[in-house]
């Protein structure tokens, strides 16, 4: 086995991230007092959200996350305060017009059951009076982007899709008219943990391409750490407890509330910050469907390998095959159980979950287009975890030894 890193293999495939197409958001003293309530649900919230970033809103139930989010597209009208998008006050716009320029993705995808997948995705472009050809092309492009084969899925109805697939269509619909800002409210709350992990990875991959400004409400602090460029932690009345990068929030929680909210074991939570991308991958012998078995055997023998990863014609992994199990003249589909596969953006927590469910001790890693980029071993993951935990412990000891100072002085 020879070594390579996800980053170095990636540069050959993907190149630099795309330009930012998102817009900067600014909230100034935004307040919402619901009729008949004594206290405002959102009390003078001021916040800057830079263009092209993902900001995660977290906080206890009822603290005002959803109200804050829905004021950005005026699903809820603020009682007072100003919200601007790239400096433009949202009050200057007609509500319908505004909602068409802001993507909105909610739990379960909330697709119209009587419309096909294509009609659901093309809804907003249709309202914006795009011509039919452009809508059809855009719909196919987006289905491809969210990992659904357009030919297979465009004419299906939502009931003919799994929960994860419906959620993917919901994300495609939110991006359809190429909005600079996308709001998401618990987008992955309704799916099982493995699908959730995959959807999160996909969102990160998509974001690398589209670079929108994404504001996302979640109940799950691990999801916030994984997806957020920044995390906004709110207390009741949408008061800001801390607004910072996940790294800083974990290393230097601003107060006891944040410390409690982030939870104990924040050294362990650092595992949600580390990605498969940070690990050294091993390269293994691969074979493409239809290739000559004799040639593959020779390649494996030369490399001293007994296990081979079989790829399809777009370099996507299909599974492992043992050299001595190769039959016939041409490489066919691998038989048996599906192999463990990890996206390069998966966190080390995700990697552990996936690997513990599999006995082979290694997982195939895929890149931005689901192509094979290498293999990560269980040992590489546990080694990296050990190093991170040790480093976190050393930091904690160093900070408890240090003289009293500003909270910001903490590493
Ligand atoms: N339409 C409404 N009328 C009156 N009060 C409301 C209304 N909608 C929300 N509230 C109240 O405003 C506060 C904030 O609600 P909001 O839904 O924004 O919180 P949240 O942080 O998103 O909560 P959760 O995490 O439980 O979804 C809560 O106390 C809620 O009861």
CATH topology (level 3) name of the largest domain: Rossmann fold
The largest sheet, given as strand count, sense and whether it forms a barrel, is: 6 strands, mixed
What is the CATH architecture term of the largest domain?
3-Layer(aba) Sandwich
- Regions with little confidence, pLDDT below 50 for 5+ residues: 2-15, 404-411
Number of helices: 16
Total tally of structural domains: 2
- Hey, roughly how much beta strand do the residues contain? 15-25%
Q: How would you sum up the global shape?
A: globular
Plain-language structure description:
- This protein is an alpha/beta fold.
- The chain has 2 domains: 19-264, P-loop containing nucleotide triphosphate hydrolases (Rossmann fold), CATH 3.40.50; 276-383, CBS-domain (Roll), CATH 3.10.580.
- It is built from 16 helices and 18 strands.
- It has helices at residues 6-13, 65-72, 95-100, 117-121, 123-127, 132-145, 150-153, 163-175, 193-210, 221-227, 246-251, 256-262, 266-269, 293-303, 348-356, 378-401; strands spanning 2-5, 25-32, 42-49, 54-58, 80-85, 88-89, 102-106, 181-185, 213-217, 230-235, 239-244, 280-283, 286-288, 307-311, 317-322, 341-343, 362-366, 372-377.
- Strands 7-8-9-4-10-11 form a 6-stranded mixed β-sheet, sandwiched between helices. Strands 3-2-5-6 form a 4-stranded antiparallel β-sheet, covered by helices on one side.
- A hairpin with a 3-residue loop joins strand 10 and strand 11 (239-244).
- Helix 6 (132-145) crosses helix 8 (163-175) and helix 8 (163-175) packs parallel to helix 9 (193-210).
- The longest helix has 24 residues, at 378-401.
- It is globular.
- Residues 2-15 and 404-411 have low confidence and may be disordered.
- It binds adenosine-5'-triphosphate (ATP).
- Residues 390-411 are annotated as: Disordered.
- Residues 25-262 form the ABC transporter domain.
């Amino acid at each position: 086995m020879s070594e390579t890193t996800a980053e170095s293999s990636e540069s050959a495939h993907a190149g630099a991230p795309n330009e930012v197409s998102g817009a900067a958001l600014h909230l100034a003293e935004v307040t919402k007092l619901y009729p008949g309530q004594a206290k405002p649900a959102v009390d003078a919230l001021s916040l800057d959200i830079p263009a092209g970033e993902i900001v995660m809103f977290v906080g206890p139930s009822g603290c005002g996350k959803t109200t804050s989010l829905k004021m950005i597209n005026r699903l809820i009208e603020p009682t007072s305060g100003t919200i601007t998008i790239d400096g433009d006050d949202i009050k200057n716009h007609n509500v319908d017009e505004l909602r068409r320029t802001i993507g909105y993705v909610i739990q379960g995808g909330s697709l119209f059951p009587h419309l096909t997948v294509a009609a659901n995705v093309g809804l907003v472009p249709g309202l914006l009076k795009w011509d039919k050809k452009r809508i059809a092309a855009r719909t196919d492009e987006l289905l491809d982007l969210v990992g659904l084969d357009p030919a297979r899925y465009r004419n299906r109805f939502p009931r003919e899709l799994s929960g994860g697939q419906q959620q993917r269509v919901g994300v495609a619909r939110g991006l359809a008219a190429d909005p600079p800002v996308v709001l998401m409210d618990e987008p992955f709350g309704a799916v099982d943990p493995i699908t959730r992990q995959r959807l999160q990875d996909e969102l990160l991959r998509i974001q690398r391409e589209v670079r929108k400004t994404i504001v996302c409400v979640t109940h799950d602090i691990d999801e916030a750490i994984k997806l957020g460029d920044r995390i906004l932690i709110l207390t009741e009345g949408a008061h800001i407890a801390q607004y910072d990068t996940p790294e800083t929030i974990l290393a230097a929680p601003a107060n006891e509330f944040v410390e409690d909210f982030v939870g104990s074991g924040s050294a362990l939570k650092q595992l949600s910050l580390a990605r498969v991308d940070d690990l050294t991958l091993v390269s293994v012998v691969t074979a493409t469907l239809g290739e000559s078995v004799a040639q593959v055997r020779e390649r494996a023998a030369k490399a001293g390998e007994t296990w081979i990863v079989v790829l399809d014609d777009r370099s996507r992994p299909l599974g492992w095959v043992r050299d001595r199990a190769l039959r016939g003249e041409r490489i066919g589909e691998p038989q048996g159980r599906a192999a463990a596969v990890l996206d390069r953006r998966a966190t080390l927590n995700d990697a552990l979950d996936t690997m513990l469910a599999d006995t082979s001790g290694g997982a195939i890693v895929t890149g931005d287009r689901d192509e094979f980029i290498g293999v990560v071993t269980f040992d590489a993951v546990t080694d990296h975890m050990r190093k991170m935990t040790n480093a976190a412990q050393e930091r904690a000891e160093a900070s408890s030894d240090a003289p009293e100072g500003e909270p910001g002085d903490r590493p």
